[in-house]
Amino acid sequence: MTPLGYVMLPIGLACFLFSEKWLFRLVVFWTLFSASAAINFGDAQTGSALQVWMFFGTLWFIQRGIRGLSTLSFAIDRRIVLPCALLTLFLCIACASLVMPIFINGRLLISSPTLGDESEAALYLTSHNFTQLLYLIFGLVMAISVAHSSLTDEERKGTEKTLLVSAIFVSLWGAYQFVCNATGIHYPDYIFNNSISPYARGFRQMLDVGVGRISSAAVEPSVFAQSIVAVLPLTIPAWLGKGSVLSSLGDRVAAVLFVLLLVLSTSSTAFLGLAVIAILLVTTLRKTRLLLSTRTFGVIVAAGIGTAIMVVLALALNGGAGFVFSEVLVDKAYSYSAIERLMTVVLAFGYFKKFPLLGVGWGSVTSHDLFVYLLSNVGVIGAGVFTAAMLIVIVRNWRSLDPSKGQFNSSSFSWFLSLSVFLITSAAVDFPLVFGNFWVTLGMAMGAGWKEARRKG
Predict the structure, then answer these.
(1) Exposed/middle/buried for 187, CB within 10 Å: 0-12, 13-18, 19+?
(2) H/E element holding 99?
(3) How many helices and strands, by DSSP H and E, does the chain display?
(4) What pLDDT shows up at residue 330?
(5) Per-domain residue ranges of the chain
(6) Residue 39: which H helix or E strand, with range?
(7) What is the mean pLDDT of residues 58-81?
(8) Handedness of CA 14, 19, 22, 23 (dihedral sign)
(9) Distance (Å, rounded) from C-alpha 267 to C-alpha 143?
(10) What is the pLDDT of residues 310-323, one digit of tens each?
């Protein structure tokens, strides 16, 4: 157990015994800390970690299970039964896909996902497949549990506050990391970047121009950027005068902080996420008929100017706007990591074409994107079910934005944007299997959209 784990252990046990509400909030708060481990296993080359959010999540699941046994109530709430049923079906397909490695039995060679490594390995069913399946089970149970804990406005408000406070803390920690990089102060990675996993060393990344990158408490800068850009929509209603999470001023200050840190992260995912939010925001404002209001127009103009100023300032602070802009946005497409990502997608698509129905088995193939990852691992059947589940959640929240249905629904507005930007950025990054913030985002979007399902019923 890590030192952080020893600190969290008594806190988790106390909440387990006395407060389900605070245990759930601990789960939500720590989902943005993907590089923070409660327990490390193995060595630095092949090790893995139990993230802090998973530790609290396990306690929360046990607590909910005990409560369910005491009341003999394990039924899915009928208000969210359709997306929950589709997610459960997706899990069943992922389980069924594990027959594929047994069927293939070494007849397919899987190329290394590392650029320059020409090694190949015959495909067999291994413990890695079951490990990846356990991650999926944990995530899906988390999403469904979060949805059940977010069916009322009061419940969602508490979760949104916790998530926003977490994002503020992670952003401030990222700002401290930037100061350390700029001044040469030793960065205390042993606090929140204590995961032994070789994939959690993102805080050591440097640009070719000698600029240290910001990952904060996430495993790498792109994951940090995706985490923050998915929380950013929670602050938008405050700018529109349509509600707030913390307060109007607090939400606006948080938004400025988020955008600044997204730019400082020098992650192409950050810029992609900001562009996606901008496009979706115009679309949602048209849907809600707010686009024509003078206030909204002023906010959009001010946000555009402010973002441009922060981009120029942040890039200049990072060692020269021209060099950093070129490396992050222009040269990125030709970088080693970009070529490696593209290589994994091409290879994975080739495996899918050979076994299109169920893919080659859950957890068998690495593909640094969302859609081809699903196609290669669970085939068109699994990818289709997963897509259907996401579309149902997104469409329900989209329909809740219809102005003819009464009061502006800030929760549906925010979670529609959040889930959409998470999925779109994942299409260019990775399937967020082990990251708790995706499953929390999905659960919150399911909880926010249930009223639209009731209207249709």
Answers:
(1) middle
(2) helix 99-104
(3) 19, 4
(4) 46
(5) 3-456
(6) strand 37-41
(7) 81
(8) positive
(9) 27
(10) 555 555 555 544 44
